[in-house]
Amino acid sequence: MRMDCLNTYENLKSSLQRIDYSKLPGLDAQLRMAPEFRHEEVKSMGAGNSAIKSSVLLLFYPSETDHPLLVFILRPEYNGAHSGQISFPGGRYERDDPGMEYTALRETHEEIGVNPEQVEVLGKLSDLYIPPSNYLVYPFVGVADHRPVFKPDPLEVAAIIEIDFSLFFQKEHFIFKSVHLRDGTIIQTPCFTINGHIIWGATAMILEELLATLRS
Fold it and tell me: What residues make up the domain containing 98?
């Protein structure tokens, strides 16, 4: 990968536009960021479990110095599988949604206040099954040419996290770490650690597929 694609937002946007989203690395890339004991469950894609459909948005936009930023949200503490975790904005498909892309944009608007008209959706990454919550996630890649004015829903978002996308390509931010699950289990998992934030699980798996695509 030409690293100059990460120097500015416009360069990254051009690289994202050139991706052939019909030819992605899929599970091979996603599983690099999954705990080993989850691999077979993820591969099942929820077969026989009536997985819940949901969508997320990987939203890129420029910083004040034209660096490409990627927005994440910190989930509040609640009685659920993804309590207190860092994720992409998104959520469940609803019957009235005309499609999964619409779901991603609607949920992003509801969670962090980004107007769908500000977002240009460039493509969709590979679907990903999340065993702990029985969700089948449809990840979409989008760009906004100006930093959005965020209005987080306090019931769904504890904090908005903006990260310079180029940092994910630096090897020192990739580690294996012990993570405490809600049931008290401690697991070893690959993750990204940036600016004191730990990004692991489905969010890291989705992100790794995009990183792998841009590296190729």
Answer: 3-215
